[in-house]
Specification:
The chain is mainly beta and 211 residues long. It contains one helix and 18 strands. The chain has one helix at residues 55-68, and strands at 3-6, 15-21, 25-28, 34-37, 43-49, 74-78, 98-99, 109-113, 120-122, 127-130, 136-139, 145-146, 152-158, 175-176, 181-186, 194-195, 201-202, 204-209. It has a six-stranded mixed sheet, with no helix packed on it. Strands 7-8-13-11-10-14 form a six-stranded antiparallel sheet, with no helix packed on it. Strands 3-4 form a two-stranded antiparallel sheet.
């Protein structure tokens, strides 16, 4: 298995079904008490639907699918709306969010520093990704993440960190919060492509996050 790059961005997705997947073990005792536990992280998945495409539009996608070899090889995909910042930031913005304290795996909050003071920089439901690993996390602060007078803030998120994240002065970790890519694999071994009699092609792919 290997990472093979970014999924083609053209012609873009027409519709998206986005799922949160949590594995929870539930045991009911003789007294009726339910015990719940989990040892797995949240995984994101979904169905990404293209509009009807011409052959010229579909061929690059078809070629990329051949490289995927079903669920074998992984890729990054930016999901419309889900990956985008609700604050309207882009990857070339000057927000400059960096980690300020070494934070270990299992944590669900992290201190950061930005170039913006006294403002809300993230809303609940926004997604983020750290540059040292590919897992995507979701902001859980009910009032959003607001910086103080010097641009400092703390982000609360789920699921818990799957690996350590380091402060800027030790490993240079920063936080991506716009156009966040999800590291995915195809869910199915068989990919179905519909060739219509009007010359257009219909295709949608099922994907799930891989760590």
């Amino acid at each position: 298995m290997a990472y093979i790059g970014n999924f083609p961005t053209s012609p873009g997705f027409q519709a998206v079904k986005f799922d949160m997947n949590n594995t929870v073990k539930q045991t009911t005792t003789a007294s009726g008490r339910t015990i719940r536990s989990t040892t797995a992280t949240t995984l994101w998945s979904g169905t990404l639907q293209f509009p009807p495409m011409t052959l010229a539009e579909f061929l690059p996608i078809k070629g990329f699918l051949a490289r995927c070899r079903g669920p074998l090889n992984e890729f990054d995909v930016t999901i419309p709306t889900v990956s985008q910042s609700s604050k309207g930031y882009s990857n070339d913005s000057t927000v400059g969010m960096t980690v300020t304290t070494n934070t270990g795996a299992g944590a669900t909050s992290i201190p950061v520093q930005t170039l913006l003071n006294d403002t809300t920089i993230l809303n609940p439901g926004d997604v983020i990704r750290f540059n040292n690993h590919s897992k995507v996390y979701m902001v859980t602060d009910s009032e959003g993440v607001t910086t103080n007078g010097t641009g400092g803030a703390t982000i609360n998120f789920e699921p818990a960190l799957v690996t350590d994240v380091y402060a800027l002065d030790s490993a240079g970790d920063y936080v991506q919060m716009a156009e966040v890519p999800f590291r995915m694999i195809l869910t199915n071994e068989v990919q179905e492509m519909t060739y219509r009699t009007d010359g257009l092609i219909q295709y949608e792919l099922d994907v799930i996050e891989v760590i």
